Amino acid sequence: MTADASIRPIVDSPVVQTSYGPVRGADDGRVAMWKGLRYAAAPVGDLRWRAPVAPEPWTDVADATTFGPVSPQPHSPIPMGLGTRADEDCLFLNIWAPSGAGAGDPKPVMVWVHGGAYIFGSGSQPMYDGTVLAGGSDVVVVTINYRLGALGFLDMSAAGFDSNVALRDVLAALRWVRDNIAGFGGDPDRVTLFGESAGAAITTTLLAVPEAAGLFSRAIAQSAPATSIYGGERAGAMADLFLTRLGMTAEEAHRAPVQALIDASQQVFEHVPATSPGLLAFAPTVDGELVPDYPVALAKEGKTHPVPLLIGTNKDEAALFRLMRSPLMPIAPKAVKTMFSEMSNDQPGLQLPTAEQFSSAYPARLARTRSLGVASDVGFRMPTVWFAQGHTAVAPVYLYRFDWATPLFKTIRLGAAHATELIYVWGNLISGPRDVTFKLGGLKTGEELSERMRARWTAFAATGDPNLPLGQPHWAPYRTDDRATLVIDRRDRVVDDLDRPIRQAWGDEVLSFR
Description:
By secondary structure, the protein is of the alpha/beta class. It is built from 16 helices and 15 strands. The protein has helices spanning about 130-135, 150-155, 165-180, 200-205, 230-245, 250-255, 260-275, 295-300, 320-325, 335-345, 355-360, 365-390, 405-410, 420-425, 445-465, 500-505; strands at about 10, 15, 20-25, 25, 30-40, 60-65, 90-100, 105-115, 140-145, 185-195, 220, 310-315, 395-400, 485-490, 495.
């Protein structure tokens, strides 16, 4: 199952009038596509490290059949297939809608925020081709670019620039969707913001951002490092480190060639987790302006937006980083010990697992295997559980864990690692002849699992309830009395209080990075 449209004829789609000018895309008989739609002016020159501004209107029909440039970024250790070239002028979005969709039959809208550790990725990656998701599920799919790394997540507010410009990019894209999506067949009152990894953390952060109120009516967060957000002191230290590596003042950096910023970004990106396990170089900031407080803390206080939330992680999140030999997650026992020490220094009141709790929560015989579990839980599972518990006070929450792994992934000890659920959500199971995911089998099961996940995700986008017709287990909202969790595997099942051992080990005190 792929999203390859090359076997279907491409024809011009109807011209759609946006609030800035008319655009024409393409239609392959299954979906209509509009690519490279500008949602904000080029964030270059004086607009570097500034909040996005509206684009200039146009009168001629604009061609929307090719992707726009993506945010400049270092070379990724994982092949990203960005879909197009990189340029600082990168604030574009892409739309897939079922053929024939129109304003008379408004469809649910799903706006995707890609992951990539806040420094990699794009909305035009082939994995995020919306043909299968939109054409097979009767939804309108939107993917967006936003500024990455130092261009999007460096807090330069001490030098008079705007903070959190990447978050502001996503908000600008959501406003564009609100104002224009009806012309593409979407329902502006049924917008689901969904994302994975860094994109999921952006989603959970925006659930706590007052300016995001009313811009989306549901949210999906896949493998959200929801606590990867920094207080002002740490964000300022990261900015100072970046400028030191760059060898410039903030004003000089504002005018510097973009490649110099990208080179320094890569140095800092590699340096920070290697010297401070568990930390990333770039992340959103609690700036007291756009982001008033730590999102997980606000969720615990019942101060997130009251929209239904579908949230979860993968069983073996950290295994991907072990396979990549990446320092992004502390996997070696020594790195985990260092992380624990820094966590204690950063938050003296934080509950860390006792020896007995540690053995109960992580019963593996090998220290390295235990460290994989600790890394997965500190980085992804516990932030997800903390956020889910808090958000239940304001809206229904559906918690899941993705456990499925193909025979090959089991053989190479990857399992249900970070990002392995993506192909099933998007329905793009095979990326090309060199894709080895199903080399040892499992494709039929993968296709069935993909159909279930897409059905659940799009049902949630349409109604706020991800349940399927009779024959599938009933997925009840997460409540503190039973803590129902959907385990997604060869056969789905609902388990009560799946996370009890790690909840008891880590407690309810939220880890934050001040």
